[in-house]
Write a structure and sequence with these properties.
This protein has about 325 residues and is of the alpha/beta class. Helix content is about 30%, strand content about 20%.
Length: about 325
């Protein structure tokens, strides 16, 4: 299917969804209509104004955006308190881009999907721009993302991926855009940043490749094509994801993955921080762990009948299959 036809169908779905949400919101306002003829919430206060169709031609969301205000910015939680502490404003900024750098299968796609899932709690759909044509929807459904709230676009090439990403980021009816794209020049990057800013839609860019990702100090794996510290970036934050070998015996009891998340670049604070996270592959939950944590002795008897162990990068391969 042609990329323009895919995006047109997506827009039609968003319009239907938007109409349903507006009808529901209208009914709720009528239920709360007081004798004074004003719309009030349960505490007698005026609710936030509903957004109209955005000027860029995207479909208006029809509901208040929510989120937490930090220093004048609307922020979305990452789904993990430890990661929120690492991010300068305590989460990801709406209307901005966040880069997730890492090797293919190393956890960048997984962490970006967890962030998109948290943004999707607003009730709006999550849109996947699968530039690498490797996204596996059932893995997302297993982590609590509703099938009805997940829309996938599969571009044929990098040019189509950039165009689709630009169109999706301009649509305020979208809770988040998960975009897999490797190479991105400064002009195209700026184009996506302005698109996200115009609608308030957060964009999570998955920058995966088989080369080493840029480190906090700008060092790369030796490849001349690897990003350097001075490479132009229009993202609000750049996270470098480095997988850590998990305890195979612990994975018998609970399939988990560990990786180190480094704050390689940010606009609202100092880079250089890092945190070690553990992902439950069944639920998609993230939690902070001690990097040198070992299996408690009380769990040893349960290892008497071992099950086949799983590879450390299975969940990311499931998402990007």
């Amino acid at each position: 299917m042609d990329i323009r036809e895919q995006v047109d169908r997506l827009r039609a779905q968003l319009r239907r969804w938007d109409g349903e949400r507006r009808a529901e919101a209208r009914a709720n306002r009528l239920d709360r209509l007081g004798s004074s003829g004003r719309v009030e919430d349960g505490n007698g206060r005026q609710p936030e104004k509903y957004e109209a169709e955005d000027s860029s031609g995207g479909v208006g969301c029809g509901v208040a955006r929510g989120g937490v205000e930090q220093e004048g910015w609307s922020v979305i939680g990452s789904g993990c308190e430890a990661l929120d502490r690492l991010l300068p404003l305590g989460g990801f900024v709406r209307g901005a881009l966040a880069e997730f750098w890492g090797e293919t299968g190393g956890g960048a796609a997984t962490l970006a999907l967890v962030a998109a899932r948290e943004a999707g709690r607003s009730g709006r759909p999550i849109v996947i721009v699968d530039g690498c044509r490797s996204f596996y929807p059932p893995a997302a459904f297993g982590w609590g993302i509703e099938p009805r709230g997940l829309l996938v676009v599969r571009p044929a090439d990098a040019r189509d991926a950039l165009w689709a990403a630009d169109q999706i980021l301009r649509c305020s009816a979208v809770s988040a855009a998960w975009i897999s794209i490797d190479r991105l020049d400064s002009r195209s990057f700026r184009r996506l940043q302005l698109a996200a800013e115009s609608s308030g839609t957060p964009g999570f860019l998955v920058r995966c490749s088989n080369r080493d990702p840029p480190s906090v100090d700008g060092a790369s794996g030796g490849s001349p094509r690897a990003a350097r510290r001075d490479e132009p970036s229009w993202a609000d934050v750049r996270l470098r994801i480095v997988p850590i070998a998990s305890d195979q015996s612990a994975m018998i009891l609970s399939p988990v993955r560990r990786f180190e998340v480094q704050l390689a670049r940010c606009r609202h604070g100092r880079a250089g921080g890092k945190v070690v996270l553990e992902l439950d592959e069944v639920t998609g939950d993230l939690r902070e762990v001690n990097r040198h944590a070992t299996l408690p002795l009380s769990m040893v008897p349960a290892l008497a009948d071992p099950a086949p162990s799983r590879g450390g990068d299975d969940s990311d391969r499931a998402i990007a299959r």
